[in-house]
Amino acid sequence: MIKYTFILLASLLLPMVTGCTDTNLTHDIPVVPRPAQLVPGSGNYLFSDKTTFVVENEEQAKVANSLISRFTNTAGFTPKLNIGSTEKGEIRLITDTSLKSEAYLLDVSSKEIIIKASDSKGFFYALQTIRQLLPASIERQSPSDAKVECVIPAMNIQDEPRFGYRALLLDASRFFIPKENVLRIIDCMSMLKLNTLHFHLSDDNGWRVEIKKYPRLTEIGAWRVDRPDTPFPARRNPKKGEPTPIGGFYTQEDIKEMVAYAADRQVEIVPEIDMPAHSCAALTAYPQLACPVVKDYIGVLPGLGGRNAEIIYCAGNDSVFTFMQNVMDEIMELFPSRYIHIGGDEAQKTYWKKCPLCQARMKKEKLADEEDLQGYFMKWISDYVRSKGREVIGWDELTNSSFLPEGSIILGWQGHGQAALKAAAKGHRFIMTPARIMYLIRYQGPQWFEPLTYFGNNTLKDVYDYEPIQKDWKPEYASLLMGVQGSMWTEFCNKPEDVDYLLFPRLTAVAEVAWTQPEKKDWALFLKAVDNYNEHLAEKGIAYARSMYNIQHKVTPENGVLKVTLDCIRPDMEIRYTTDGSEPATDSSIYADSLIVTNSQTIKAATFAQGKQMGQTLVLPIVWNKATGKTMLGNKPNEKVLTNGIRGSLKNTDFEWCCWEKNNRISFTIDLQKTEKLNTFTIGCITNYGMAVQKPKSIRIAVSDDNETYRDIAGLNFTPEEIFREGTFIEDLSMDLKGTDARYIRVTAEGAGPCPADHVRPGQESRVYFDEIILE
């Protein structure tokens, strides 16, 4: 990746590093997010030890120094800085009050660079554009003997953001992210002109900010038990007395340092203290704030928590409101942000329904139900925060109540974020971070190559293609949309590098959606800019994901054969493949169209560019049997993977596993096209305990000659102990068909129903996933 990107960049900048000759540059100037208007010029500007920046005042000087200081380690010199409009210099920052806040004009010629903006934000963003176009070594943290020539192309840019709110959520609760890593992420955000860090500082899994009035929040609430080698959803709750070695927190001095560091980079940190749910860490420290009907041990949760996650702040206890008020006082002292996030998501009302204090509060305030009790709770804290001159943001569950806090801003996350429109209909502003697209915890590439996480794919292309303003919106909704947010949840992160891997390079796509007007977006140009940005990441020591180079496969049965399609989200990659078991190479066959397979074979494929392999090798072992390629009656797309010759991986969402919406009775039928002698029926079944994916209660095989009259010939039954085993594993369920002759095979299965009380997902309906039918 690094070598390949260097080749691309070198070819782009070759005229620049050989001298200041006039060169007709193309529109392929690699900047992300894409500017509103970019006109290439002729030639280039070469920075030297004689380069002088001229600024009008100390505020501009501070912004200019953010770039000037970077030359020392890279080029071996530090450009001069003069303050005063009468001073002379090649790079000038000039105030233009006609420009909007954050907008800038950047005019680069071979002799000078003129930057115009109305505020520090605009000047800073212009300098970030220059920073991206400089060699990646501009990110060096220490001096080097290898000095690099610093050149940027001549151009004229007129730029301003599409949205004013351009955000990243960073979840430090589920995985404590060290301060140094947070600072580095903030710097990477600023290069992309993202201006808001939504800092998720409290949850069931850890309280991460020092509150001096309540020291137990970090003494107790910041630490949890260790569940090594167990995925987040499958982790068992803590037992009283267990050691709690995992966690950490930020001191108030840490927070002040991060806030100041972010402010210097035009990033505002918006803190989130989640309430009334996601509060087990706080309640572990101060259990008297839970409803008095809670008798279970309250501990900081290492995973989802099951029923323990239903333990939330008591809405009928006045001391809870005093606690929240005192916490908010310290939070608002630490964070000078315009906005304060108060949570409001996923609050189960199990204990509120039983709690005499909560029920008394409902009666006294004439509240219709527990949803309105949450509305009352959120309105109270919102009113308090607003009384201190701040504005409130909350998750879209706030719209479930008739008590939508006055002036509140709704963060739309569920599904495609549509719940936020309920608030827009009432005149509330909103921000979009739909889980199905903008949650960066999801898989960012073909899952066969990715570390374990949740659900389906949100690739770089998926995020890039996201358009927040939908055609069916009422016109006034668009004016209430403040912006967009990428959300980095950390359930599956066990070290800081895991966070980096999931963030980058998808954060570039978040920035493109937030800054660039849709009509200006260009996928091919964006990829070149991403390659360039990734070089800067590599210089900063960030191991970004290379998922965009990997191949997604699809194998579909069609009339007794298999159709294999291969795809990479990067159109600038060649896909080369082999079918003889050898590794793909630069001289292997080029994939141009779908492949037709009629027998057992192994396809290997990889992406290539400039004579080098770019992605990991995809290995598709296709194993043929009597069911392979045969038709599934009913032609349901999800069932086609049952006869496509490909086994699923340990990720049940990898598109090779078939699941059903209703699991109480699963039924599907295979047409073998002719009568066959059937000896053994085998079907692959996966267990993913943490996600409530379990074996069925029973499975039955019936056969027919005419698809009308069926006779049962085999079956399996499983006990609850067999079904609800813990772990993630694949089992082949086999049945003896005793040489039966038949053309049609009907499979019926019955799901196991709700997960038992001692399950990590108690009461949740278990689901069945099958991958491949093998008939012998």
Give an overview of the whole structure.
The protein is of the alpha/beta class. The protein folds into four domains: 2-159, Chitobiase/beta-hexosaminidase domain 2-like (Chitobiase, domain 2, 2-Layer Sandwich), CATH 3.30.379; 165-515, Glycosidases (TIM Barrel); 550-622, Immunoglobulins (Immunoglobulin-like, Sandwich), CATH 2.60.40; 631-775, Jelly Rolls. The chain is built from 19 helices and 36 strands. Strands 8-9-14-15-16-17-18-21 form an eight-stranded parallel beta barrel, surrounded by five helices. A seven-stranded mixed sheet has the order 1-7-5-6-4-2-3. β8, α5 and β9 (196-200) form a beta-alpha-beta unit. The radius of gyration is 29 Å and the shape is globular. The two termini are 45 Å apart. Mean pLDDT is 94; it is low at 1-26.
What order do the helices and strands come in, and which of them pair?
Blueprint: H1 2-17, E1 37-46, E2 52-55, H2 58-68, H3 71-75, E3 80-83, E4 91-95, E5 104-108, E6 113-117, H4 120-133, E7 151-159, E8 165-171, H5 179-191, E9 196-200, E10 202-203, E11 206-207, H6 216-219, E12 223-224, E13 246-247, H7 252-264, E14 268-275, H8 280-285, H9 318-334, E15 339-343, H10 356-365, H11 370-387, E16 391-395, E17 409-412, H12 419-424, E18 430-432, H13 435-438, E19 442-443, E20 454-457, H14 460-465, H15 475-480, E21 481-488, H16 496-503, H17 506-515, H18 523-539, E22 552-558, E23 561-567, E24 574-578, E25 589-590, E26 595-597, E27 601-609, E28 612-613, E29 618-622, E30 631-632, E31 658-659, E32 666-688, E33 698-704, E34 711-717, H19 720-723, E35 728-750, E36 769-775
Parallel strand pairs: 2-3, 2-4, 4-6, 8-9, 8-21, 9-14, 14-15, 15-16, 16-17, 17-18, 18-21, 19-20
Antiparallel strand pairs: 1-7, 5-6, 5-7, 10-11, 12-13, 22-23, 23-26, 24-25, 24-27, 27-28, 27-29, 30-32, 31-36, 32-35, 32-36, 33-34, 33-35
